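Risk register update: the risk of archive-format incompatibility is retired. Evidence:
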Amino acid sequence: MADYYTLVTCLPWLPEQMEKCTQLPLSRIALNRRLSMLNVEDQRRLAIAEALYHPTQTDTQPDRERVQLWQKQIAELPSIVLQDVITQRLEIQTLLAALRYRRRPNTSAEHFYGYGRWTEWIRHHWKEPLFALETQIDPLEHWGELFNNGHTGDLQFQMDRYFWQQLLAVERSHHFSVETVVSFVLRWGIAERRLKSDADAALADFQTLSDTLLHSSGIQQQLNSLFEDMNR
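Archived output:
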């Protein structure tokens, strides 16, 4: 416990409710400075946890080799609690991938491959709306409605909030430990992705609005006329 006490006390506060996190309390560079207090092995395991929990290609269906690599990496994590949290994250990712895969033309259950305990179950319940997994994940029925209605933004928000609360529960139940540190960093990653996504969306909206105003206000026509006069 003493090994992590100084580091945990140096970590800033993240809100208990994800939607109240409107800005990051520190940059990634500043966070990495604090994480340098970890020993080399803990830093390596943290990097594995982040890569598994925040994949760069969430829609890519894993193949057998990738699943085997994930299994090996999860086994290297320092606690059963962290192994369980990341395993469930990947299992939910597999479930969502199965819903998307099933919508594609010319797909079948036997060709679906995923990670975790539900993969074979999903194949056997392929034609059921949520693969008969409603009892395994409390909010799954609501998630299914959002998915079916094409509300991808709301679905991502609800899933992120679910993961946020799960990680927060780990932080609260493990004080001044590696579990505390890893869970905080994974929550920080959720916040970073969400805030970056919001910023990108806001910039895109601003650019679209600017283009619309430019073309509809007559400014563009005036500029075009000016350039034509200059070129005569």
